[in-house]
Amino acid sequence: MARKHFVREVFLALLCIAGIGWTLSNSYSFSLPTSISQALTHFVSLTLSGVANFSMGSAQELPLKNLIVPPQAPVPPAPPPVPPKDELDLVLAKAANPNKTVIITALNGAWAEPSTMIDLFLESFRVGEGTQELLKNLLIVALDAKSYNRCLQIHPLCYSLKTGGVDFSAEKVYMSDDYLKMMWRRLGFLADILKRGYSMVFSDSDIMWLRNPFERLGKDADIQITCDDYNGNPFDVQNGAKTGFMYVRSNERTITFYRDWYLSRTFFPGQKEQDVLNILKSTPKFASRGMKFMFLETKYFGGFCQRSPDLVDVYTMHANCCKGLKAKLIDLRIVLDDWAAYRNLTVNSSSPNLGKWRPPSACLHSWKR
After folding, report:
1. Cβ partners under 8 Å of residue 226, min gap 6
2. Who is most buried in 47, 74, 344, 360, counting CB within 10 A?
3. How many Cα neighbours within 13 Å face the side chain of 276?
4. pLDDT tens digits for 300-329?
5. pLDDT tens string 319-362
């Protein structure tokens, strides 16, 4: 073995000398003496022959098992191709905060008209406490071409949710066939958001965001949802769930539940998704899912059904228990005006109306029409 290494080193040195001679002869018309050239040629020939003989002789002395080339390790299979990101993936990535949470509202043509619902909704973010910065996480989901075009004019994050054979642009009468289709289509879309790994706050656009709701949300609940009449126990499923405002964490429990909730629509014809949820949450199977399901206190997340006592505590205000777009617009305008007046009052104000707001009179009378 030592002889083999010695011969190899001498051989490489001779090749180096020969290379230098070759370079000099080509560059400067210089040639090595014939005797040196012949000697080099002879030595190289002998060296190569010796190496070959040494290698073959050594190989004959080795056991046969040492001559077998070990099999190569199998080539690992190629990873599955990453599915291309679609338009929804891209817009969700833009809207999500570092915790992969997005704020979502749905919009149709009737609520997208100028000086109507979507304008009040966005205004509440701009005038609320700690809410303006949340606009960068808000994704407006347009249910028709009219609302999508308006969204592009007023907000940077828009997504067009297409539904074949259904026109959602006009105002939908409460509990009409088109209204039910719109509610269930919306639920199916939210289930898809969770499946893509994004947590979400869903908010109807007739909810005014007056303070940052993340400050009041629980840290470990799977689903947190508002209710019309809060009974004082945040974990009591007897609270009536209101799907207009929900905070849902994306995990295996919520993804499975939203899938099953959406599929249940075939078993409850003529009922909206909120009514079906209130049925499902009282079943034994719901309890066995292991979800932490929490109801939000109306003192902080109020509505016209059960309003926050005063503006000092309120985070969101929902125009629920109200029929028709016109009545909602009147009373939500009053909410924002009362909020502005409250914000303008000084801390030392002795006004008896500090933190109070006017009742939603238009909505109270909307059911009598």
Report:
1. 241, 242, 244, 245, 246, 295, 296, 298, 301, 303, 316, 318
2. 360
3. 20
4. 999 999 988 888 999 999 999 999 999 999
5. 999 999 999 999 999 999 999 999 888 555 666 666 788 999 99
